[in-house]
Each structure stands twice: as structure tokens, then as C-alpha cells.
Amino acid sequence: MVKSQIDALGIIFPNSYDNQLPALCSERLMASVPFASRYRMIDFILSSMVNCGIENISVIVRKNYRSLMRHLGSARSWDLSRKNGGLNLVPPFAEKTVKVYNGRVEALASIIDFLKVQKEKYVFISDSNIVTNFNYNAMLDAHKASGADVTIAYREEEIPEAFMNLQATVSTDLYYTLRFDENGRVEHIHTNPKSEGVQNLSMNVYLIERELLIEKIQHAYVHGYMYFERDILAPQLDSLKVHGFKYEGYTARITDIVSYYKENMRLLNDENLDALFSPAPVYTRVRDDNPTRYIGSPQVKNCMVADGCVIEGSIENCILFRGVKVGKGAVVKNSIIMQDTTIMDNAVIDYVITDKEVTVSEGKELRGNESFPIFVPAYQSI
Amino acid sequence: MAKEMIAMILAGGQGSRLYALTQKLAKPAVPFGGKYRIIDFPLSNCVNSGIDTVGILTQYQPLVLNEYIGNGEPWDLDRLYGGVHVLPPYQQATGSDWYKGTANAIYQNLSFINRYDPEYVIILSGDQICKQDYSEFLNFHKEKGAEFSVAVMEVPWDEASRFGLMVADENDKITEFQEKPKQPKSNLASMGIYIFNKDVLEKYLTEDEANPESSNDFGNDIIPNLLRDNRKMYAYRFNGYWKDVGTISSLWEANMEIMDPEHSGINLFDDDWKIYSRNSGLTGHKIGADAVVENSMITDGCRIDGSVKHSILFAGVVVEEGAKVEDAVIMGHTVIKAGAKVEHCIIGENASIGSYALVGAMPTETEKGVATVGPGVHIGSRALVGPSAMVDTDVKDGEAKW
Prior knowledge:
The complex is a heterodimer.
Chain A: E1 8-13, E2 34-35, E3 39-40, H1 41-51, E4 56-60, H2 66-72, E5 86-90, H3 104-110, H4 112-116, E6 122-127, E7 130-132, H5 136-146, E8 150-158, H6 161-164, E9 176-180, E10 186-191, E11 198-209, H7 210-222, H8 228-233, E12 242-246, E13 251-253, H9 257-266, H10 270-277, E14 292-294, E15 300-305, E16 310-311, E17 314-320, E18 325-326, E19 331-333, E20 336-337, E21 342-343, E22 348-350, E23 352-354, E24 359-360, E25 365-367, E26 374-376
Parallel strand pairs in A: 1-4, 1-6, 4-5, 8-12, 14-16, 15-17, 16-18, 17-19, 17-20, 18-21, 19-22, 20-23, 21-24, 22-25, 23-26
Antiparallel strand pairs in A: 2-3, 6-11, 7-13, 8-11, 9-10
Helix pairs in contact in A: 3-7
Chain B: E1 5-10, E2 31-32, E3 36-37, H1 40-49, E4 53-57, H2 63-69, E5 83-87, E6 91-92, E7 95-96, H3 102-107, H4 110-115, E8 120-125, E9 128-130, H5 134-143, E10 148-154, E11 164-168, E12 174-179, E13 188-197, H6 198-210, H7 218-228, E14 233-237, E15 242-244, H8 248-258, H9 261-264, E16 285-287, E17 292-294, E18 296-298, E19 303-304, E20 307-309, E21 312-313, E22 318-319, E23 324-330, E24 335-336, E25 341-347, E26 352-353, E27 358-359, E28 371-373, E29 378-379, E30 384-385, E31 390-391, E32 400-401
Parallel strand pairs in B: 1-4, 1-8, 4-5, 10-14, 16-19, 17-20, 18-21, 19-22, 20-23, 21-23, 22-24, 23-25, 24-26, 25-27, 25-28, 26-29, 27-30, 28-31, 30-32
Antiparallel strand pairs in B: 2-3, 6-7, 8-13, 9-15, 10-13, 11-12
């Protein structure tokens, strides 16, 4: 076979860190959180995987997955409507062995029969709370070069503030830092450390051979272990050769509503926008909106605007999703306005995040501030 | 299972009056309205009207069009039975022929039509901008018990002699056909959109093919023959927006009109009648801190740091700082460099306009031309492209083209 594909399959956990974004995830999950004017979080991982030749991707959902199913549809938008492989959405109760999981071990155990009959040699495992245009090929090269059993992608960064106050109730909401020995082998995995300063913070992207993964999961499952990191990797660092893959590409890690706000706004800088989108295309579900129309001479400064909008009022430092309407005399500043929201004439909005299909009535005012943007839930009318 | 009606779109047009834009693509593939190509309109009309089987007859420079249509998925026309099919001329056991005329193009594809055993066939033109519900047209055809119907538009009497005209009685029955007459007896212009009963279509196409004198054209040959035989022919009056974008000025005008749906009558902001197109896959567009945007349409991937007034920008267009764009149609991925001034013009895809270059000019009493820069053309810095110029090769720095 022509080697245009990487010999790996992908497994995505779409619910990880849902609890960090309770407002946005009340009716959806992390993977379907809207981001950057026309995308959903999962678009970045799916696109990166597809662009790297990974064509067999399983998404193991836990709850709140209706919006994700609608978004993914037949997965054709990501070129994942394939005869062999393609997208495999695994909901709870899909089979008698699949139930609502509490940890990665249970989740992976539920698809173990599927994993056994796949042909790919390697498995990439990823969460969906980090926006990045990831290069899985580079990670596989590093994995082969180091001869590791498991490779973990990480970044050198400070532990986000939101993590420092974390009250994790589900194992997939935990976070990990890595300590390496002089040869770059992981000698310690810390769970939820509250350490100051720059750390080797895991991106929760794992690379492991499929056969080894099956073996480890089966063993852990029969022993009642739940956590992949704490129960499989951490106790076996002597026998398992675990290496880190330092990732230096552009990332936006969503850990709470403030980081969500900041990471959207960061893309108003062209350099950041290029850093995220130029390595390879990012695909998403197409909505067939018309181009955005600017009527009259609205003040438009420093904004990212998707298709299907009609702008008559002034907008500054904003991210507008598809189908947003801004009426005459309205002033929208420093805000993230999600799809099909209507800001009526003379309304004033500052530091606000509106979920989809919100209506802000004529002349109404809504002001938050940078450290505490106001969130308006979907379908609300003000 | 038989289909009630299938559509055949004539998309072989070279669009010679648009030559700078149609060097490498057929007229139906010309970009239009920010994110569409002209063919998106008849295709979307078909889908929105419930027609799920469409043949597209191509001939001239079909590569771009073929690739664009692909499997038809953007228009929801990837179907197990039916869907969209691109039909170029092909070699047959008895020899091969280019399509000799519009009628011959359909004749050569009778076998395609017969595979679906339709009762009716609608013949569409691939180079018109129009939102039309073909199912209403079909209802008219059935109510009248017609064998052939043609969609017509009322045009001003003083312009009538530029069109093919249908003379109809009070029941809309066609009594006479005049092709660009000096003395018009009617102001009902044919839109080149026909519904035929399939058996009638097949009979007349076959007869026409057997006649070596024929020009194999619907207007010149088929319609006169139907009239001669007193067939049941009716004129269906359409009063929505319709534009044949055959010239640079009409193409420019139609683009400007979609920015003003309140007056022009062509509204693309219509959730019940979406126009579908292949998606660019780019991010939302970016408007910089010092940009000016007025009365314009802007789509995905654009980066605006200059001034854009009353213009349509296609996907991925870049307008650098200090550049001025007004009354312009700028097609995909074209870059307008810093300080350039681009006015009252059409610029093709992937072109670049150098810094401080001047392209086109706002219309004056005597000069109303729409400057045109072909796709992929580079206009050097401080170069000049006159208001009536049509440029399809690079212009060097500082050079002028009138």
C-alpha cells in the first residue's frame, strides 16, 4: 500500500474537562464548544489527525453528546466518511459492554474488542480541550527515535490558574506534570500538583502501540483500576519506558471561561491566527451562509467575523460567529458573540459572551469586565 | 423508478465577452457574489425545487467546472440514484462530435435522460443569476397541459428587440416566436429555460438531428419546429430577479445588486432558498484596527487593513494598510498591496495588485468602464490599469495599460 497514511488510529475523549466550563457545557461537551468564529473544539484535533493521515478515529462520548453528533454528522466534512476506518462515535450503552465511564481505563475497555481487530500499529489518544494544529507525525518520529513504550505530549508552561483551584470529580478532569531524568525518560508523573512556575504540563496526548495498550487496559480493568495516568503509567515508570514529546506549536488550552475568552481574543492578533491556522487546514461543518454584509458605515475595528452576519452597528475587539446580526446604533465591544445571536438597535455590549441564538433587545446594556466576562446562555432574550 | 422531472444545464458557454476571466474556465464556473460560482444558482434552484437528478453539459475548458462539481455533495446532489453528472461530449461507436449546438448537446445525452425515464425535462442555462422555483414552473406546465413551456420575463419595449420574444395569447399560449426582431410584437423575452414533455423532446431532437441543414439550436430550430406543428406551447411569466451575466458590465452590476437586496430583488440572505457552494474552509474574516468597511460583502479568510467601500470580497482576499477598494469585485485570494487604489472594477482570482498601483476609476460623465484584471495577473507597483482596460497578462512596475 502507498504510504500516504500514518500507521496509527486515533481515540478522542470529548468530555474531558467539561466541568471546567459549566456554563458552556450545560447542554454540550468540551468537544462541541464553539471556538474562533466558526469552529468547534473537536475540529482542531480531527483536522490535525486527518491532515497527518490518521483515518480511523474513535470518539468515546460520555454525556451531553447530542450537539457533537449533530456537528459531526457523517463526518464527511473532515473526510472521515470512509469505507475502512473513518469516524467511529461510541456512545454509552452502544453495546452491552459500553457504559458511562468514569475514567479512561473503563472507556478504553469498552472498545477493547474493537481495538483488537484494528490493523494500525499505533494509537494516539487525545482530549479535546486544547486548540492546536498538531503534528502527529513528528510525535511518532520522536516516539520511534526514543524507543519509548509510551510518549506523552507536553508543554513547558505554568499551571493554569483554573487548575490550581481544581475540584476534580471525574478522572478525566485531572491534570498531570512530568519530571524527566537526564535521558528524557519520564521518572515521575504528578497528579494535580499545585506547583508554581513553569512545569512540564501534559497535553494528555498519548502515543502507544495498540497491542501494548490492549494488554495494559485489560490488566487494569480486571484489577478495577480507573485512571490511565495514575493507575497504569505512574506506577509502572520503572518497567514502562515513558518519554515526553515537547510540543512548541501554537496551543490554546481551555481551562475555564476566562481562558476561553482570552484564547478566542488572542486570535485577533494576526500572528497568532497564522500560527494556529497556517500549518494545515482546519475543517468544520459547513453551514452554507452567505457572505457577511456590512450596511452603511459601521465602525469595525479589530474583529474576526464569520459568514452570514449582518453588521449595521459598531463592533470592536470581537469574535462573531455565523449568522450574527448587529443592529443600527448598537455598540459591541470586547465580546464573543456566538451563532445566530441578534444584538438589536442601540444595544450596548461590553465584555460579554453570548451563547447561540441569544437576543439582546433594543437599547439594552450589558457590561462585564475582562476578568469576569458576562455569559448569556443559549436562546435567552434580554 | 421513474423520476418526474430531471434537469439538464447547458454549461458549455465560453463567455467570450468576459475573456480575461474565462481564459481557463467556462462561464458557468466564473466566481460570483463573494463565495459562489454562477452555476451554483441553477444547481441550488434545482435542489431547492426538489429536482435531484441533474446533467451538466460541458464543453469549453471543463477542468475547473468538473473539479468544482465533484460528486455534487455541496449541493446535496450526491445521490445513489440520480444526483449530479457532468456530461462532456464523448466518443461513440459511430464517431465523436463536439456539441454542435444546444439541441445537439441534449440529443447526444438522450441515453442519460432515458436512464431515469422522466416525464418532464427542464433545460437550464448555466450562466444566469436567478433564484427560481422550478416546481412552480412545472405546476404551470401541467395545469396548461403543455408539451413545451418556456420561462419568460417582461422586458421594456424599447429593449425587446435584443431578445428572443414569445408572442402569447391571453391564455399564455405561444402563437409566435421572434428572434431579436426589428419590430417586436411582444415584450416577453425567453429566459432560455424550457420544460419539455420528455417524449416531445426526444421526438424533436431526433428529427432535428436528422436534418443536416439544422443549426441544432433550441431557439433557431426546435422552437420554430414545435410552432410549425401546432404543439401545445406556453409562456410562463417569471417576475423575480434574473440576469444574464454575459458581459463584464452586467457581471459587475449583478455583483453590486446582491449587496442591495432591498432594491435589486436578489436576496441571498434567505434561509428558505439557500444558494449552496463549495466551501473555502478558511477562518472567519479579520478586520484590522485601522480598517474602514462600508456597505460591503466580505467572506471567510479575508484580511482587511485598508479601506473597503461598496465592494464584494471573495474568500481569502487581502487588503493591506492604506489600500483603497471601492465599487469593486475582488475574487478569491487576490492581494491588494499597501497604498493601491482599486475602483469600479473586477479583479480575478489569485491576482496581486502592487503597492500604490491604480486599477480602474470611479465613473465619470464620459467614462463608465469597468476595468478588469484576469485571474493570476500581477499588477506591478505604481502601475496603472485604465478604467476600460481588460488585462490578462502581467503589468510591470510603473507601466500603464489603457
